[in-house]
Amino acid sequence: MNKKFTVISLAGALLLGGAAAAGAADTNEKGSAGSKKKAVQDLITVEEAKKIALSEAEGSVESIELERVKGKQYYEIDIDNGKEDFDVKIDALDGKVISINKERDDDDDNDQSEKDIHGENIISEQKAIEIAEKEVNGMMKEIEIDEDDGQILYEVELQINKGEADVDIDAETGKIVKVELDD
Known about the structure:
The chain is of the alpha+beta class and about 180 residues long. The protein has six helices and eight strands.
């Protein structure tokens, strides 16, 4: 039972960040574990954030990042429709749209290949996140889908106890292609 509280406390400390949260978990393990567990459960999923963003801006999702600024967590979702790029920020707790920034799409990427990447034969972002989080026991910070040498990959960046980890997952099979740990 004590190990369970420690695991919950560590996961919550990663989510809420900083030494202050970790110190609070050490001094009042039972009290802080419950509130941190609640904070983790209250976040909307990546799929929910994606759905909200796509209801605001039409196109294909290029990347999703879970950001934390001044204690406020939000998803930053980049959407490309071939003519315009959108940067949509969604509150990670209540799903409200914080902001939408629109720019003319002036990059030289191949928009047709972007359409191919987001086909029906790939696993969801949520599934890729679950696979990566389980592999390194971490929490997703950023996810992108990209084509690398003809293979469609989810590139997932995660926060772990000792730094960060990057996990590449085959978007069609769900198999882990590469794990890189950064201290």
